[in-house]
Amino acid sequence: MITPVVTFLYHWLGWGSWIIAVAAGWGGIWAFRRQKARAVKVRLSQVLALEGSALTLVAWLSAAGGGLLDRAEAGLDGGIIGWGLTEILGIIGLTP
Fold this sequence. Notes:
about 100 residues, mainly alpha, 5 helices
């Protein structure tokens, strides 16, 4: 039942899919441990900073792997999203 989700994340995020797995696990533990009486406010700037960091990481992973579409489609490096970001930003300077 979870296999299609894992395959989807691995294809689109490559090795960056581990970020999603760790974040989901941490969020689940945090949700069970927090006190119900204390409300936690999450600012939009915090969410955007975390998303920006994750996207930067998958772009860097893709660039470090050579920025090849074949590798991205196989779920390696930064996946399809990382490959797309490296193409858009033009940061593939690591290929020989």
